[in-house]
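Write out a sequence, fold above all:
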Amino acid sequence: MEKQAHIQLTKMEHVTKAIIVGDPKRVDTVKKYLNSPIDLTFNREFKSVVGIYEGENILVISTGIGAPSTAIAIEELSDIGIETIIRVGSCGAMQKDIPLGELVISTGVVRDEGLTKKYVPADFPGVPTLSLLAHAKELSPHSHFGITRSHDGFYMADNAETERFWSDFGILGGDMETSTLYVLGALKGMRTLAILNNVVLFEADLNEGVNNLVNEAEVVAQGEKESIELALKLLRGDTHNGSTK
């Protein structure tokens, strides 16, 4: 089997579970939780490592920012036999009662980005694997569970107005990758879930929030730690029974 064009990986024996992150730097953060980690590749935004967590082989790979590069990663991960993907990402809160560093777990997603509509019509729902979602509720009952929104950018003139529009419908948080994970995962029969660390308060300054993430501010770093630990616990012992639900 030839290497996949972008992630530069080929099928690995007994590796069917993956954690995807946006930032390549976060791959090294997750790596610290793995036994016998092996650095694999770093091509463009796709940095990868494989290791063992409590007996499970786990692949960790970065996707970069946004739907297009995330779709490339998911397509190629499917081609090398990955069956379960959990996204460990960040989001901006869209409700005032979600503090920094708390986890938002997406129970469904508003597909407000462009790419997934090239795969299936906008009426097709973006939802996670229900068994993973139920297990997450057992392990992390205090997380915020609800619908999130995926979008294509931050700097449009009407961005604040758009966020308020969706906030009024009870949307919990916004990111740029979850809809791609859920839609492509469903189309390819993969098991998926997105765990998002809140790094920007609702209607707060975007630059300050993202800089807190980059500089590993304490409260944001704690949320990242909790999201990684939850993802690893969910993947531990999780089995693929042939169903995506």
